[in-house]
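note to self — DONT lose this again. spent like an hour looking for the file last time. sequence + predicted structure for the chain T wanted, 322 res
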Amino acid sequence: MSKCKICNNSEASKTYIAREMMFGYGDEFEYFECSECGCLQIKLFPNNLAKYYSPDYMSFCKPNIPKLFFPISFIKQRRLRYSLGEKDLYGILFSKIFGNPSIPVWLPKAEVKSDYSILDVGCGVGRLLLRLRRKGFYNLTGIDPFIKDNIFYKNGVQIYKKYLEEFEGQFDFIMLHHSLEHMPDPLSSIKELYRLVKPKRYVLIRIPIVSSFAWRKYRTNWIQLDAPRHLFLHSVKSIQILADKTNFKVADVVYDSKSVQFWGSELYEKQIEVKKRHSFYSNIKKRQSFFSKKELQKYEQKAKELNAQKDGDQACFYLYKE
């Protein structure tokens, strides 16, 4: 019987055999679902996990980097300050002229300020950090152990080829966008996050959620299982357990699942691998080659309903360090 690495339970777990589907390897991996905390986890880590992270894996695709001119950067930074609730007369003026900037909803919810030091864990080549730089943020750092080498962009974004335990410093805001599920020791990772975040600040963890309608419906064809790259598929309960063990407070859980939980899983049920999943996100014509416009609209609506019911297949966890 397998022992859960989250809650140490070793009784009555369910076993599943999942196949690698993104790149079409078809290799099989055994997962087990803990009967106590609900976490779905791989039984044995692959000997050569790097095999399943090819150079065209979506996080490693080379980003487009537009040039930053000082006047535009200045305007964007003042608009950013105003949009985050900071008092700024220039920000009021520029927002009236150019409109409010589009910023991710999780930034103001985590009470992030424009001058905050931000760390993105598992950032790949830093696509999100570069987008935040274009919004006006400037104190931006990333780490990812799987990139080829350190990356220092001319606009100030710095990315280090390191593991969490190798990194030093403290940050005002730390974010993990679909990276915790790739880490072989979630408890140790969250302990490191506690060390790296400043007091009275937040860590944002966005992950797939196994305690969801999509997992119950599709099981091993659920696209977010993503064997073997996703080593742990957490439940709300398993994240709460990890937070309790590391002195974090779970301040909020916000569901943000998308329609991919349906169209992606339906493709896997038909044994169709999605080799370049990010291209399916951005290219509606590719999706429409498999699904009708009406079907895709239905999936979008269903995703919204599940989020409202707290049953979507991915969520944002706001961990607060008191």
